[in-house]
Amino acid sequence: MATDLITTGFTEHSTAAEVVHGLDLHGLRAVVTGASSGIGVETARALASVGAEVTLAVRNVAAGDATAEAIRASTGSSAVRVRRLDLADRRSVAGFVAQWEGALHLLVNNAGLVTGGLDRTPEGWELQLATNHLGHFALADGLHGALALGASQRDGARVVSVSSTAHMRAGVDFDDLHFAHRDYDPQIAYAQSKTANSLFAVEATRRWAGEGIVANAVNPGGVATGLQRHFTPRQRASLDAAEAAGVFTYKTVPQGAATTLVAAVDPAFAHSGGHYLDDGQEAYTVPDDAEMADHPHGVKAWALDPGLAIRLWTVSAELVRATGP
Asked: How far apart are alpha carbons 199 and 218 in whole angstroms?
């Protein structure tokens, strides 16, 4: 019921800086993926501004270095680091995990990819699912021990999984995860990966909450970033139609990062996971056949289903832990 939903004092107009205002995060170690552009930069900047040690996990190290320097200059923090991470490359993820030392208190799985057509990894995985979900799954799974250590140090650790309203377009097709048999639609592929992001938070919390680790999914809302750079005319027309129908209103980048920061630092979510947040609040659940235009701030049941979350975790673990391409 709606009265049971977790609420906070933040809204769609809140900014990342407002969410962290007055906090002291010295001693907190955070990793933010995709932190060289868009809301990832603002997420990292907000965390660094209140004392957190932040590692920017990025595919383009040069861009990451430039971002880190800008964050250091704007926040006065020297605890901003850059590490290479290609989420579509299992070896890159494994290398990042192997090089990590010590505790981790906050993992923000922020990076995202949208393609205009069908692309695959060397394993044959559909690229959007491979990057947006499987890479982040392998990263979180690999850093589980570091998160458990972090949780023991600071009364809890958190994982934030950045999802999207797009999850409403499609659930996870377990019979054809990688579009081997169905016609490829990049919008459906993206939607599947965003549903997977939410299901990850559900199962990660079930498995890890006993160690003090919770995970939550967030919808940042409509933000114009580099994520849209590969859109086809059809994808762009669909986005424009959704905006016209009131599915979303464009936010600024600082506003787009705000809900991520709510999941990352707000006391309401310190020990409560498996939720989907929208505009700084826990979203209400709608049936799987609900129309996106009618419930732009809801979350479909298929994105929070515990049984589907367990199934996805099992399948994902089998894929990322397999040997060879």
From this structure: 12
Catalytic residues: 190
- Within 173-257, where are the H helices? 186-208, 233-244, 253-256
CA dihedral 176, 182, 183, 188 (to 10 degrees): -40
Radius of gyration of the chain (CA): 18
Whether the Cβ atoms of residue 31 and residue 142 lie closer than 8 Å to each other: no
Q: How confident is the model at residue 225 (pLDDT cuts 50, 70, 90)?
A: low
Distance CA 67, CA 61 (A): 10
With both helix axes pointing from N to C terminus, report the angle between 186-208 and 306-320 in degrees, rounded to the nearest 10.
100
Question: Both tokens of residue 289?
Answer: 């056949």
- The predicted-structure confidence for 184-210, as pLDDT tens digits, reads as follows 999 999 999 999 999 999 999 999 999
Helices assigned H by DSSP within 76-167: 90-99, 127-129, 136-142, 144-154
270-293 residue pLDDT tens: 999 999 999 999 999 999 999 998
